[in-house]
Amino acid sequence: MSAIRIKSPREIELMRQAGKIAAAARSLARELATPGVTTQEINKKVHEFITKSGAVPSFLNYGGFPASICISVNDEVIHGIPGKRRIQNGDIVSLDVGARYKGFHGDCAGSFIAGEGSQEAKRLIEVTRQSFFEGIKYARQGYRVSDISQAIQEYVESQGFSLVRDFVGHGIGEKLHEAPEVPNFVTPGRRGPRLVQGMTLAIEPMVNAGGVAVRILGDNWTVVTTDGSLSAHYENTVLITDGEPEILTMAEDL
């Protein structure tokens, strides 16, 4: 992976705009993700929203991905392709959306329950979301990427859940995926780069109710838990500042 890009004030402002559009698209997707709706219907409306906002869906045709939003349900971890599937009452629906505005990306995700779900599903989603906020306590100048990773891992595992190892967070900017990688777990001997003002990171815990193992389905995109357990995903684009981190994709309903 290439060198870490430090963003200029102008680039940060463009990322703020991209982040606002991505966050609003995620909120729209959440409103739409109700029992009986197909995932393709959500994709269509999210695509229309992003383009009408003056942006381009980050995911459409990225590496060949055929849709504008990733919609992953229950044991699907990430990269679910929208289609004819109808959302059922009680499903965990993970919505991952990106928007590119004037050359810069915003990327965010969240997991929600369609209708009324189980207590296990609710707790999994709450722990996944909270693990992000545990991690960004260390998203400050002077700490290292591994400090974020360790905080996420310690919190999730203390709650009895496991973290996906095969996929990680990442830097973000003019490219959807930039340096550095941002794992949600610690690898002994690897501390990661030191954080400095102007870095922008997509921090995204992927948490399983069962084991860590995942596999990719025959569509070459959809990632599922190997043991069939439930999974949840939460992500925001974060700016490292000279003080508190700034979440560029925050929305009130998330």
Mean pLDDT over the full residue set: 97
CATH architecture: Alpha-Beta Complex
What's the overall geometry?
A: globular
CATH class: Alpha Beta
Tally of strands: 15
Instruction: Estimate the helix proportion, in percent.
Output: 25-40%
Strand ordering within the main sheet: 8-7-9-14-15
Largest beta-sheet characterization: 5 strands, antiparallel
Spell out the CATH superfamily.
Creatinase/methionine aminopeptidase superfamily
SSE string, helices as H and strands as E = HHEEEEEHHEEEEEEEEEE
Question: How would you sum up this structure in a few lines?
Answer:
With 254 residues, this protein is of the alpha+beta class. The protein has four helices and 15 strands. The chain has a single domain, classed as Creatine Amidinohydrolase (Alpha-Beta Complex).
Characterise this structure.
The protein has four helices and 15 strands. The strands form four sheets. Strands 8-7-9-14-15 form a five-stranded antiparallel β-sheet. Strands 1, 2, 4 and 5 form a four-stranded antiparallel β-sheet that branches. The longest helix is centred in the N-terminal third of the chain and has 24 residues, at 9-32. The chain is of the alpha+beta class. It has one domain: Creatine Amidinohydrolase, CATH 3.90.230. Helix content is 27%, strand content 24%.
Protein traits:
Creatine Amidinohydrolase; alpha+beta; about 25% helix; five-stranded antiparallel beta sheet; about 250 residues; 15 strands; four-stranded antiparallel beta sheet; single chain
